[in-house]
Amino acid sequence: xxxxxxxxxxxxxxxxxxxxxxxxxxxxxxxxxxxxxxxxxxxxxxxxxxxxxxxxxxxxxxxxxxxxxxxxxxxxxxxxxxxxxxxxxxxxxxxxxxxxxxxxx
Length: 105
Known about the structure:
three-stranded antiparallel sheet; 3 helices; phosphoacetylglucosamine mutase activity; Phosphoacetylglucosamine mutase AMG1 domain-containing protein
């Protein structure tokens, strides 16, 4: 991730890394923990609306999440992300005047 940010250059993204001091990889902070516990990683405190992401051990699965203005935890897992991307692509196709059926599998 740090190499990716360096390649982007500038201040395009503001990224902070949260790494627990001890323990196993992703213990109480990885994507499985966040999804099953439906909460922020242990020891992590963020302002409402701050977008966060957790990876699994080999980084082939991620979940996005945030606390809303009422400090209620909100999770965007793969299904929700797929639906958002499909909606975005559908809107783009309509704006381009392209009539197409779009599905998510």
